[in-house]
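Subject: sequence -> structure tokens, single chain

Hey, anyone have a minute? Need the predicted structure for the following. Not urgent.
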Amino acid sequence: MAIGIKWQDLYQRGMVFGSDDYGSHPLGTDTIQDARINIDGSVFRVRLLKGLRPDNPYDYSTSAGYHPESTWGSEWNNLLYPLHNGIHFNSGNNVANHLMNIFDELTEAEMKLRNNNWTFCQEAISVGSTMRCVRGYYGITYKNNSYGTIGNTYASYGYQPCFELIQ
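Reply:
Had a minute. Here:
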């Protein structure tokens, strides 16, 4: 995980949406989102994970919390929760923990999803907003979008790329 990077810098390098166009909610100079990496002859699209529900590309609230409804069914949840070996909701959350104790893989520290590190996601909190959804910091299920302005560099904000196999 790369720490201390701007969302906007990732966007300008084509590393946010992986969509071969300008992306779903760009700001600043339009940049084709087509970053690729070749690993041992396999080509991967490089992009950020989606941190919100597929049917809700914008989270108009500035709510934060453990496994909020706005994240249910998100790419982040579907890909990262199964890799994690811990409890997926805090004790105050009323959502049933259907993944608890099923997986025994990586810790949050190993995944760099705790210890005061936020991970940028693709989504904006509203149309035209400079604020982005961020995940992590307090744990794998935690989500916040009241921070993560695209043009600022934060020591605790980072980039955890998704490599999507394309050939």
